[in-house]
Amino acid sequence: MSQINSFDKLRVDGEQSRTINLQPLKGFRDFLPKDAISRNWLKQKLSAIFEAWGYDPIETPTLESLDLFKGLIGEDEKLFYSFKDRGDRNVVLRYDQTVPACRVVALHQNDLAFPFRRYQIQPNFRAENPQKGRYREFWQVDADIWGVKDPLADAEVIALSLDTYRQLGFKKVNARINNRSLLRDFPYEVLSCVDKLGKIGKDSVLEQIQKKGFSKSEAAAFLERVQNLKKDSILEAIFSVLSVYGFDKDWFIFDPTIVRSFAYSDGPIWEIEIPGYEGGSVLGGERYDNLVYKISGKEIVGTGFGLGFDRTLEACEQFGLVPNVKTTTKVLVTVFSKELLPKSIEAAQRLREGGVNVELFPDPAVKLDKQLKYADKRGVLFAVIIGSEEVQRGSVTLKNLATKQQKIVPLEDLSKSLLVE
Predict the structure, then answer these.
(1) Which helix (H) or strand (E) holds 286?
(2) What kind of fold does domain 33-318 have according to CATH?
(3) pLDDT tens digit sequence for 330-350
């Protein structure tokens, strides 16, 4: 059968159907097994790191009321995927995870123990201009603490964000830290421009501020004032705690030009970059003491971060930190003949019960050499062969598909033998 092209005419019950574009929508992606395995590897690593720090997982719906997000995001509300549903309600696909999580905290306040630590790994949706490391559907990874006003909570989530990259294997990251309280006297329109300083440069920032209605001299004065800000006592306390956690001082710096464009940021804010990775910042965080109040009227303070899953995975791949795994299957149990199929099924079941990932070749009519070639192409490490001689001896032939070496193993010892390979 010839390969199907993007606009091939598909046939249903022998009749020609309509022409369908088989490519995903712009900004959306398919993931074949190798990529999906890498993504699962990162997700499992992140979950383990967060849980080691005492954070529990939560999940929120993909679809929320538009009212929940409206007025909280800032100028990027133009990126909402919003529409009317069949109940004529204004709804939006999950834009970020902090706002829905604050809704959960307010709704279930009496069911939660405070301080409440949560992490969340789910897809978000933004009508971005797709580019490298930026998509319209993407996984976001959040970790937050609610119910603590003390800067120790901010220091903890910043420490967790640094430790995350340290445990992933990065030798150095740069956390740029600021406090939005230092910026309270600046117009938000100015801050949203200053936040882009590292991406577009000084001249472009000044130009954008002027487009917001300020004069050239006002724009220059705003930028100079921001760049000359000094750390306050809250940031001094956070930096002291980060040193106690054992992070080198060159892992975190004060940067007054870090603004974070979310309108709900109102305390310590930070971003993390990885030296040598050109995809931009991989993590951003902020305190948002008024966010729960804005959506519910309940005064519950919070602080936390959002980690860019795709950018972090891309950086892990760039620095060789992702295991090179094509499949999670460790063993292919071959089928020598239809008559010996029950013995192959028995071997596969024994392996699964012994904790080994295994698949059984599903077609007894296919010759053994083709079964082995299939396993090799899939990236399976071992093959189990059970012919009539092996059945008579109560054993199997275990073949290493990388080295091509093989040995005879008693059937009852098969799982144990594979677990030490």
Answers:
(1) strand 283-287
(2) BirA Bifunctional Protein; domain 2 (3.30.930)
(3) 999 999 999 999 999 999 999
